[in-house]
Amino acid sequence: MLSKYDALLSGVREYDNYWSDVAITDAIAFLETFSGEDWAALGIMAEERPRLWQSACAQALSEATNTACSVALLLRLLRIGDDDVTVAVLDSINALTSYGLDVSRYATQLHSAIAQARANAGAAVSCMLDALDEKLPPA
Q1: Helices (H) and strands (E) in the chain, counts
Q2: What is the three-class DSSP state of 25?
Q3: Which of 76, 78, 88, 72 is nearest to 34 (CA)?
Q4: Terminal CA-to-CA distance of the chain, rounded, Å?
Q5: What angle, 0 to 180 degrees and rounded to 10, lies between the N-to-C axes of helices 2-10 and 51-61?
Q6: Helix 107-118 and helix 123-135: axis angle, to 10°?
């Protein structure tokens, strides 16, 4: 399944309605079948893939039920430092916190990423960053 997931994300294009309307659901379904080994391999693979792949991966992780693996991979993607990937990661973490996931132990790292993302954020991204920031304990 990991190779199918990789191929699906490799097909994502900039401003891709097919991804957001259809393919993300397939990606989430693939994630649901992953073993521990698949998650470990995905973590390594994710660091080597292009920005669009990484952003799509972050988006799919917001819906995976294995939240421990999802958060670990999201934090790994956050360290890449790409602005678009960072926003996708923070958006997914915001979604996970909306479902009740506690990420308070990562508050310092998330506050730092939020501050960096604000530099280039438009209105919609700023609203998402504000929402996530409010869910975290003070730095």
Answers
A1: 9, 0
A2: helix
A3: 72
A4: 39
A5: 120
A6: 160
Please give the tally of structural domains in the chain.
1
Taking a C-beta distance cutoff of 8 angstroms, is the pair 69, 34 a contact? yes
Q: Against a cut of 0.85, is the pTM above it?
A: yes
Q: Identify the domain containing residue 78 by its residue range.
A: 2-135
pLDDT given at position 86: 97
Burial class, 110, CB count within 10 angstroms (exposed 0-12 / middle 13-18 / buried 19+): buried
In total, the chain counts a number of residues equal to 139
Q: Which residue has the tokens 């209105």?
A: 123
pLDDT tens figures, 22-36: 999 999 999 999 999
